[in-house]
């Protein structure tokens, strides 16, 4: 679904706006956030639903890295840099896997005259956007000295709310 398509302008966007503001007006703040996350996942998966698990897996793993960074800040313990580097490595590894696997295998096949089959992975929509957004969040969490708890729902909305 494109932002300039009729289905987005005349169906999806009005439903999301009306639903969100009705829930918010009724003081269902948490439910209004859940509604936005569900709508964002629907929007993301509209083109190809098979990429939603990739987004959700990335979101969950990065949330765990961020939780670990916060817990180390609260405890005053070390190894924060280790967890930050691990989170960044995970994100970059995910990006490299989807963007460059075929390219690297083609080069290996050419250089070594091998016949490794190419997986022909399609690039998930906005993978660079949500990957670098989550890296920035991990870095901000790493630098933060506040003892603030990270809410999974707020984090999910932060990552999935593309528009």
How is this structure best described in words?
The chain is mostly helical. It has helices at 6-25, 29-47, 52-75, 80-112, 127-143, 152-160.
Considering the chains and any ligands shown, give keywords for the structure:
6 helices, 0% strand, 163 residues, mainly alpha
Helix-strand blueprint:
Layout: H1 6-25, H2 29-47, H3 52-75, H4 80-112, H5 127-143, H6 152-160
Helix pairs in contact: 1-2, 2-6, 3-4, 3-5, 4-5
Oligomerization category of the chains in this entry: single chain
The N- and C-terminal alpha carbons lie at a distance of 12 Å
- What does the radius of gyration come to? 19 Å
**SSE ordering:** HHHHHH
Mean of all residue-level pLDDT scores: 92
The major sheet is characterized as: none
Number of helical regions = 6
Q: Approximately how much beta-strand content do the residues carry? A: under 5%
């Amino acid at each position: 679904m494109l932002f300039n398509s009729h289905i987005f302008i005349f169906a999806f966007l009005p439903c999301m706006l009306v639903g969100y503001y009705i829930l918010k007006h009724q003081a269902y703040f948490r439910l209004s956030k859940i509604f936005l996350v569900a709508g964002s996942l629907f929007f993301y998966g509209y083109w190809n639903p098979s990429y939603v698990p990739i987004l959700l897996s990335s979101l969950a793993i990065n949330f765990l890295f961020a939780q670990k960074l916060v817990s180390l800040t609260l405890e005053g313990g070390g190894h924060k840099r280790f967890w930050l580097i691990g989170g960044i490595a995970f994100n970059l590894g995910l990006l490299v896997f989807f963007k460059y696997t075929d390219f690297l295998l083609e080069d290996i096949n050419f250089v070594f005259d091998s016949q490794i089959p190419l997986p022909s992975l399609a690039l998930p929509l906005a993978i660079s956007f949500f990957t670098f957004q989550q890296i920035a969040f991990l870095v901000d969490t790493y630098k933060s000295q506040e003892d603030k708890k990270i809410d999974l729902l707020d984090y999910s909305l932060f990552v999935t709310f593309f528009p």
